[in-house]
């Protein structure tokens, strides 16, 4: 598995935005270069306060600096649920005449009308992370490639590993992502696939909307209402961290099993410490890069077939982290 990239660039951007109230945008280009003929790519993500997306931003910025072949505008929203702000960012990027928009949409349907307008303006659009609604795209007559992992398969792998630590008929709960996001629905479905195959009972399943604090609140309620719960399956790592806090608050730190999805650094630490059992690595530092490279190909040759690109997703457990550390040390 590739090493998670350093977050200094993205963290600095996030801190600056929080202090100054900026919209979370930055343009990067190789120093002393003539950018007039270079394509301009806008990366529009969800919250840069989420480590997964700050890692994604950092990976994209490093790729741009290494290649020097394009300009990059990095955008992020403060709240992962702020769909209206993402719509506004798309409109701003259209007005600034970018050549391509690579977007991790906060919601699978609401962004489609603004992306249709971007395409009508001649802008290449590439969808990453959270897949846009296929039925709505078809109705709109749009072809937007999705570049990202099979979220259902990744969640199934995490759930299958959790099932090896459970007995048949044990009880578990799920912390879902946004119910209007395709990746949230896919991860929930993957968890359900694994639990159903193992004969494990899902006694509660609620959306914590990707947020740590909301996950803490909901998981605490779940654990109080269903004392028989043996494990919590969180659809992202921020919610897994919220579940850790909830387990601590109800005295379940030592026996409650928790799994997540995203492989952020804080959860890697929790896995080493035995607080989280497993997560899924969709290689956030490279996910935007895959999308940008797809966009650059489409800019170069607009006759290129618009096809989805499936990217890697891997199970991460304590043993794989240790093996990687040993490999890196050599």
Automatic annotation (TrEMBL):
One of its GO terms (molecular function) is carbohydrate binding. Pfam families: Peripla_BP_4. Its main location: other. Keywords: Signal. It comes from the Bacteria. It is found in: Cell envelope. GO terms for cellular component: cell envelope. The keyword Signal applies. CDD domains: PBP1_ABC_sugar_binding-like (cd19970). Residues 41-302 form the Periplasmic binding protein domain. The keyword Signal applies. Belongs to the bacterial solute-binding protein 2 family. This is D-ribose-binding periplasmic protein. It comes from Rubripirellula reticaptiva.
């Amino acid at each position: 598995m590739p090493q998670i990239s350093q977050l200094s660039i993205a963290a600095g951007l996030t801190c600056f935005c929080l202090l100054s109230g900026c919209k979370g945008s930055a343009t990067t280009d190789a120093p002393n270069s003539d950018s007039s003929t270079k394509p301009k790519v806008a990366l529009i993500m969800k919250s840069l306060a989420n480590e997964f997306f700050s890692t994604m931003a950092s990976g994209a910025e490093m790729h741009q600096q290494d290649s020097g072949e394009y300009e990059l505008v990095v955008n992020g929203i403060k709240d992962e649920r702020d769909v209206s702000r993402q719509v506004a960012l798309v409109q701003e990027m259209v007005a600034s005449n970018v050549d391509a928009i690579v977007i991790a949409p906060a919601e699978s349907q609401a962004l489609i009308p603004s992306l249709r307008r971007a395409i009508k303006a001649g802008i290449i659009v590439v969808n990453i992370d959270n897949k846009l609604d296929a039925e709505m795209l078809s109705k709109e007559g749009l072809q937007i490639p999705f570049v990202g992992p099979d979220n259902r398969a990744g969640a199934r792998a995490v759930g299958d590993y959790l099932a090896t630590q459970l007995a048949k008929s044990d009880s578990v709960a799920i912390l879902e992502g946004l119910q209007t996001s395709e990746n949230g629905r896919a991860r929930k479905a993957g968890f359900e696939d694994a639990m159903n195959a193992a004969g494990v009972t899902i006694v509660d399943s609620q959306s914590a909307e990707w947020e740590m604090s909301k996950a803490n609140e909901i998981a605490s309620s779940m654990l109080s209402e269903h004392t028989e719960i043996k494990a919590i399956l969180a659809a992202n790592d921020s919610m897994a961290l919220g579940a850790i806090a909830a387990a601590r608050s109800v005295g379940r730190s030592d026996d409650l099993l928790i799994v997540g999805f995203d492989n952020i650094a804080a959860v890697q630490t929790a896995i080493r410490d035995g607080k989280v059992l497993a997560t899924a690595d969709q290689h956030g530092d490279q996910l935007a890069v895959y999308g940008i490279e797809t966009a650059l190909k489409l800019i170069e040759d607009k006759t290129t077939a618009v096809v989805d690109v499936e990217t890697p997703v891997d199970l991460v457990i304590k043993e794989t982290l240790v093996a990687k550390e040993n490999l890196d040390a050599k």
